[in-house]
Write a structure and sequence with these properties.
mainly alpha, 20 helices, Integrase_cat-core, Integrase_dom_put
Length: 496
């Protein structure tokens, strides 16, 4: 009963903090609230499926938590991507005839300050913004002056010592990341510094690895699709399949924008489709999707055929060697995120702390490490979309995608119309979006992976209450092993 009261008290504290911080724009506070809501909703969901007496009350609480979670996630999305394509287009609609009646000259194009701020925050130059909005640079500067917007370059005011401290922490957390990705991490943290300052800081804090990375040269390859949302690549990664954990991801072929990246404890079609739905709610429905022939992609294939039509390659299914865009992404995801947990889980096995055949151990493993992995994947997702690409004039994937979408809207054309114009009718759908010299599929790639559910139906209410008090996302010095051992001990104590 005491543990239950503690859990209820934590929910009350969470609700009070939500009300108190309802107007905050601090990204760290927003991320913290999202993490707390995710942890609380997951715990409530587990309690709901193991308690018959309080099922109705827990179900109602769970639904309200999901609503709150979605609201805070939308706030985080609006802050990171503060303008949407429909909003941007609507802001450029000319005034009504009644507003321009009696005035001389062409009607003024309505460009809002929010729109200009959004494009600047993404990273576009003033010249690029003027082209995207179809106005001259002088008009753009005059509009900024009218709105009281500063036109100077806005670099963060941060000393070399402070920058070195942040870079040192990021190098420790992401030892395989180079300068470009680390600058993406800085941008995710709202820290904008010159490339030269970031480079010198990285040399000061990690000189040896900087020299080592110069020895690794990436072979650049050709790849071509007509525009953003013309083709998405989706797939799952099976490096953690031994422990019944599967990351799923999607990437826009044109811009290399990651559309979704999340790990789950199953490989079902409905799980993949839920992630796909969340992605299209943010970025729109792609014209085509390329995937392998795994059964987890069936629901996505049905959706694409129903919404885009038959006999046009709405869903292109093939082998993983033809899905190079996502396969190249998996190489980075494993190197920067998953490799740590891959090695950590084997470490636990080698030291007798984990048996991958026992549901009790896997339950504790999932409770602690799945939220940690998803937090790391979310950070990588935001960093990757904000890291500059040398072969694309140092534009980020988010900039390339945004520019492509706005350019298509301004020209009254879409990527779909461009692709199915009279000049492209002879394109072979089977080989569309394939790089003949692209990377091979990753060594963990498997087909039609079925993951048995990890369930412990005989957990007592006391056990669930004790486990609910553990927050795996709170700071830890041993990568979460301490929390895992505590959950494992709670389960084994009552089942031994």
């Amino acid at each position: 009963m005491a543990a239950t009261n503690v859990f209820i008290g934590s929910i009350e504290s969470l609700l009070n903090d939500m009300e108190r911080l309802s107007e905050t724009q601090n990204p760290d506070v927003i991320d913290s609230m999202i993490s707390r809501l995710q942890c609380t909703s997951d715990t409530t969901n587990q309690l709901m499926h193991r308690s018959t007496s309080n099922y109705t009350a827990l179900w109602s609480l769970y639904q309200h938590l999901l609503v709150f979670l979605e609201s805070w996630q939308n706030r985080a999305w609006r802050r990171n991507h503060c303008c949407s394509v429909p909003h941007t287009v609507n802001n450029r609609i000319a005034p009504d005839e009644e507003e321009t009646q009696g005035k001389v000259g062409r009607p003024q194009i309505n460009v809002s300050g929010e729109q200009i701020e959004c494009l600047r925050n993404i990273g576009f130059t003033w010249d690029a913004i003027s082209v995207m909005l179809c106005i001259s640079r002088s008009t753009l500067w005059r509009r900024c002056h009218q709105l009281g917007l500063t036109c100077s370059q806005r670099y963060s005011e941060i000393s070399d010592e402070e920058l070195d401290g942040i870079m040192r922490d990021m190098v420790a957390a992401y030892p395989n990341s180079g300068l470009t990705l680390l600058r993406g991490h800085l941008k995710r943290l709202r820290i904008i510094v010159q490339r030269e300052r970031a480079r010198l800081s990285m040399i000061r804090v990690d000189h040896i690895n900087v020299c080592m990375r110069r020895m690794r040269v990436i072979q650049r390859r050709s790849y071509s699709v007509p525009g953003p949302n013309a083709l998405w690549h989706i797939d799952g990664h099976h490096s953690l399949i031994r422990w019944r954990i599967v990351p799923h991801g999607g990437i826009d072929g044109f811009s290399r924008l990651i559309t979704y990246l999340h790990c789950s404890t199953n490989n079902r079609a409905d799980t993949v489709f839920t992630l796909f739905q969340e992605a299209i709610a943010k970025y729109g429905v792609p014209s085509q999707v390329r995937s392998d022939r795994g059964g987890e992609n069936i629901d996505v294939a049905k959706f694409m055929i129903e919404n885009r039509g038959l006999n046009r390659g709405s869903q292109i299914a093939g082998t993983s060697v033809h899905n190079q865009r996502i396969e190249r992404l998996w190489r980075d995801v494993f190197s920067h995120v998953l490799q740590l947990y891959y090695s950590l889980f084997y470490f636990l096995e080698d030291n007798g702390l984990l048996d991958c055949e026992l549901d009790t151990d896997l339950y504790a493993l999932h409770f602690v490490f799945v939220p940690l992995i998803n937090r790391a994947l979310k950070q990588f997702h935001d960093t990757y979309n904000n890291h500059s690409l040398r072969t694309e004039h140092h534009w980020t994937p988010l900039m390339i995608w945004t520019n492509g979408i706005l350019s298509s809207e301004h020209a009254r054309e879409t990527a779909v119309q461009d692709f199915y114009s009279s000049d492209n009718q002879d394109v072979n759908i089977e080989f569309f979006g394939i790089d003949p010299d692209g990377p091979e599929s990753n060594p963990f790639d498997l087909l039609d992976v079925e993951i048995p559910p990890t369930e412990l139906d005989d957990l007592t209410q006391q056990q669930l209450d004790q486990i609910a008090q553990i927050n795996p996302l709170q700071p830890a010095n041993n990568y979460g092993i301490e929390f895992y051992e505590r959950v494992r001990e709670i389960i084994s104590r009552h089942m031994g």
